[in-house]
Amino acid sequence: MPKQKTHSGAKKRFKTTGTGKVMKQSSGMRHNLEKKSSELTRRLNREQVLAPQDAKVIKKLIGEK
After folding, report:
1. What's the CA angle centered on 23, arms 56 and 62, to 5 degrees?
2. Is residue 14 within 8 Å of residue 22, measured between CB atoms?
3. d(Cα 17, Cα 49) in Å, to the nearest integer?
4. SS3 at position 15
5. pTM (2 decimals)?
6. The domain defined by 8-62 carries CATH number 1.10.760.10
7. Domain residue spans of the chain
8. Strands of the sheet with 22-25, listed across from one edge
């Protein structure tokens, strides 16, 4: 059986931590930033940990076990 190819879109958007959790960039940091408070932009600039249900699907796309 052939190997599973890595999903190109997923590998650009997600990364895994050392413990195996999946991280993604928060949405809302592309435009209209002058209207948002500095407190909000700091919070949005952090990366988020995905829920375990979503992480299971993403790990298959990335090619991890």
Report:
1. 50
2. yes
3. 9
4. strand
5. 0.79
6. no
7. 8-62
8. 14-16, 22-25, 47-49
Per the listing, tokens 């076990």 go with: 65
Q: Which residue has the tokens 């999946």?
A: 22
Neighbours of 55 (CB within 10 A): 20
Tokens of 2: 């052939």
Structure tokens, 12: 């650009």
Contact in structure between 15 and 55 (CB atoms under 8 Å): no
Q: Give the tens place of pLDDT for each residue, 10-50.
A: 999 999 999 999 999 999 999 999 999 999 999 999 999 99
Q: Locate tokens 């949005």: which residue?
A: 44
Instruction: Phi first, then psi: give them for residue 24, nearest 5 degrees.
Output: -145, 155
pLDDT in tens, 2-19: 988 999 999 999 999 999
